[in-house]
Amino acid sequence: MDINFRFAIVSDLHIALPHTIWDHPSRFHLVEVSIPAFESVLEHLTQLDLDFLLIPGDLTQHGEPENHNWLTKRLSQLPFPVYVVPGNHDVPVLLANEQSIGLTEFPYYYHKFGYENSQQFYYNCQILPGVRLIGLNSNSFDEDGKQIGRLDQQQLQWLETELAAIDNEIVLVMLHHNVVEHLPNQLNHPMANRYMLENAPEFLDLLRKHEVKLVFTGHLHVQDVACADGVYDITTGSLVSYPHPYRVLEFERDSLGKEWLHIVSHRVESVPDFPKLQESSKQWMGDRSYPFLIKLLTLPPLNLPLAQAKQLAPDLRDFWATIANGDGVLDYPNLPLEVRHHIQEYGAVTHTGHHHAIDNNSKLLIGD
Predict the structure, then answer these.
(1) What range does the domain containing 325 cover?
(2) Are 313 and 223 in a shared domain?
(3) H helix runs in the chain, sequence order
(4) What pLDDT digit, counting tens, does each position of 243-302 carry?
(5) How many other β-carbons are positioned within 10 Å of the β-carbon of residue 212?
(6) Residues 234 and 119 in one domain
(7) Domain finish residue from 235, 267, 299
(8) Is residue 78 part of a domain?
(9) Which tens digit of pLDDT belongs to each residue from 314-344?
(10) pLDDT lower than 70: segments of the chain
């Protein structure tokens, strides 16, 4: 059966009404643009013939009830269905406090956007004939109340049962945390592992068992497409950090049974207070990159002395912006050889050293 549909992804909105914005000298998030950037995206998307919109978490700045309320009202005005999942910023606490909603409240806010069962933090719904979306909650809390990226056993068992009952439908999966590595050794890297699902290997085994091939994530704030043994993790950068991207995708199953996913990425180029958003946002990120770069250079696997890291960090000012932009080539000939080679691994290159640009605009063969 031929199946064709078009949808969009906007991720990590970090919606913040002006009076709720808090500042921190090293934050990469330009939350000041969250609402005008989202409005710019919606102006474009409402002109397209979309079947649905996916938002893979971090809908709000820090789970503030009024920011959740603003967003749910805005989403309800759109001419196409919207489906969301919670990010770590949406439910930073298990139980509500004076600042944020709790995990238990999230389904009540978003009952029109996937969560028809307000007692459950995940869902399985048919969004089109022959197309099914599974929205998962990757936010767990340990016994001390610390937030971690993990699918609990109850959710995994539910997922196993749901997938086993699906017959000859396209299955899309959405969650906040990454499940395939988008950065070198991401699952174990001391800085990058918090963006990964802790039990990603177990989860991926379950997806492969049931031949699920498409997963949509956020959290990392980069444009990247990664694949591990047939499962694609398509992560979309944040709307409030450079390069302020969003995606329009088309799925096609042709008469021969081949399945294709066409990906086209867009950027928000300007908003009223930032007429040259791309330029000013990249500058913002570079200006605040120094503490991040010092950590990157002094932690494993490089383990550079602090003095050497301080010397090298300024040359890497645009390192993260290049990664966030997707399809980047990272080469700094003046760096020490070991450091240069490690930094190159973050680029969009194959193991043979060839540039492989699929992060922003690509046509992926999903199955045949």
Answers:
(1) 284-344
(2) no
(3) 34-45, 65-75, 106-109, 153-165, 200-209, 277-287, 290-298, 306-312, 319-325, 337-344
(4) 999 999 999 998 888 999 999 999 999 999 999 999 999 999 999 999 999 999 999 999
(5) 21
(6) yes
(7) 267
(8) yes
(9) 999 999 999 999 999 999 999 999 999 999 9
(10) 1
